[in-house]
């Protein structure tokens, strides 16, 4: 009977874990025939989450079915409900809606993160988000329908709650997106509400002047040091008691690791991420690896840790998949390390800003940075081509990709 590596999740970390594990199986030759690599996820697709703020959603969920087949990864459709690491098994609901059990010898948890929705009155009923594809599609449908609504300040106003990475990219798209729907001469309002006293608080002071300049030139307003007290169909009421009319409120503030992390006994950080070893094994577990947004890993020896981003998830996946397989195949492990850190923040039609290092030193701005961002979003973060040798080579954990 074959040993089994079970990878839960088909996002960036899950996909690259599967390819890297398949690469290790291939490298082991005849010994690799004793190991099966299985991906368990709701569908065999990679949802390109970093693009969900964009107006064009036509190519943001590429299929992984053929890619998995050519590298020898078995895909099982389903939703995991419980992890029983002591029993080396997960309970899941299969594609027919029936309960099922999947045993494993090693588990790679790669179920990502979700937008955190605090108990703000009206948030769930009246706000939109771009966290998952269904939410982005719902927002797009709503916005396209605005042209059929009576003229009003609320119709012409978009409020983005959260001035972090996603909030900034989403807001930067909105002035041009609104005008493309309502007409090029329409007076539109885009407002970002951020509880910190500065835009992009987690991005630091490096790119902030560029973001502020882009917002000024695009006419995007900011309410800093402000939170949302409630949301209704007419807009929001801020913590200061101000009512801002809007028919389009987009919530981008805060994410949390997948709730499946609660099923594993280990320390977590404030985002719910599991603490892992350099090999990405969950601390305290003999059989569970965690990768991507469910894992907090050191990126270097300077105290920096992974961000919840595809930049880190892709390389963490390569390491986790390899190490889970290597343990069962008696191959050398390859500790995760990613000392180089970059950011490339889309600023809509204005351009983008590209920074390097944890201090986020600005390297490129405007059209040059935008060209790089488009290459990242449409090429670098997509699955490798359906070529077996090329796909396995791309999954080498020694191949650190910065995107």
TrEMBL record:
- One Gene Ontology MF term: NAD(P)H dehydrogenase (quinone) activity
Return any one Pfam family short name.
Answer: Pyr_redox_2
Segments forming domain FAD/NAD(P)-binding: 4-317
Supply the SUPFAM superfamilies for this chain: FAD/NAD(P)-binding domain
Q: Tell me the InterPro entries matching this sequence.
A: FAD/NAD-bd_sf, FAD/NAD-binding_dom, NADH-Q_oxidoreductase
- Secretion signal, residue range per the UniProt entry: 1-21
Q: Which cofactor does it need?
A: FAD
Q: Would you kindly state one Gene Ontology biological process term found in this protein's UniProt entry?
A: aerobic electron transport chain
Q: Which UniProt keywords apply?
A: FAD, Flavoprotein, Oxidoreductase, Signal
Q: Is Protease tagged as a keyword?
A: no
Q: Does the keyword Repeat apply?
A: no
Similarity-based family: Belongs to the NADH dehydrogenase family.
PANTHER family from the xrefs?
64 KDA MITOCHONDRIAL NADH DEHYDROGENASE (EUROFUNG) (PTHR42913:SF3), APOPTOSIS-INDUCING FACTOR 1 (PTHR42913)
Protein name per its UniProtKB record: NAD(P)/FAD-dependent oxidoreductase
Naturally occurring in which organism (per UniProt): Dyella telluris
């Amino acid at each position: 009977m074959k040993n089994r590596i079970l990878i839960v999740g088909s996002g960036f970390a899950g996909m690259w874990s599967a390819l890297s594990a398949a690469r290790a199986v291939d490298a082991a030759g005849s010994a690799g025939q004793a190991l099966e690599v299985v991906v368990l996820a709701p569908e065999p697709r990679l949802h390109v989450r970093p693009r969900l703020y964009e107006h064009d959603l036509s190519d943001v969920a590429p299929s992984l079915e053929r890619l998995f087949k050519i590298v020898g990864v078995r895909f099982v459709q389903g939703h995991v409900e419980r992890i029983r690491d002591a029993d080396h098994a997960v309970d899941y609901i299969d594609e027919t809606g029936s309960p099922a059990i999947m045993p494993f010898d090693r588990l790679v948890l790669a179920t990502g993160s979700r937008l955190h929705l605090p108990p703000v009155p009206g948030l769930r009923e009246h706000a939109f988000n771009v966290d998952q594809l269904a939410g982005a599609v719902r927002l797009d449908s709503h916005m396209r329908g605005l042209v059929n609504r009576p003229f009003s300040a609320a119709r012409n106003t978009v409020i983005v709650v959260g001035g972090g990475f996603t909030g900034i990219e989403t807001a930067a798209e909105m002035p041009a997106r609104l005008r493309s729907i309502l007409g090029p001469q329409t007076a539109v309002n885009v407002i970002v509400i951020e509880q910190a006293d500065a835009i992009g608080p987690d991005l630091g002071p490096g790119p902030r002047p560029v973001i502020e300049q882009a917002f000024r030139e695009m006419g995007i307003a900011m309410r800093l040091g402000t939170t949302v007290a409630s949301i209704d169909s007419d807009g929001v009421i801020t913590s200061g008691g101000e009512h801002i009319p809007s028919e389009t409120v987009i919530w981008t503030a805060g994410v949390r690791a997948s709730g499946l992390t609660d099923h594993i006994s280990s320390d977590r950080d404030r985002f719910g991420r599991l603490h892992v070893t350099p090999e990405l094994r969950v601390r305290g577990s003999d059989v569970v690896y965690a990768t991507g947004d469910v894992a907090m890993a050191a990126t270097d020896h300077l105290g920096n840790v992974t961000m919840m981003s595809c930049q880190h998830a892709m390389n963490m996946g390569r390491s986790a998949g390899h190490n889970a397989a290597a343990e069962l195949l008696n191959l050398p492990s390859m500790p995760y390390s990613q000392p180089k850190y970059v950011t490339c923040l889309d600023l809509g039609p204005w351009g983008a800003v590209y920074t390097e290092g944890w201090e986020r030193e600005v390297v490129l701005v405007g059209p040059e940075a935008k060209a790089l961002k488009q290459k990242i979003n449409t090429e670098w973060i997509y699955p490798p081509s359906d070529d077996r040798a090329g796909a396995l080579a791309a999954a080498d954990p020694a191949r650190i990709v910065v995107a």
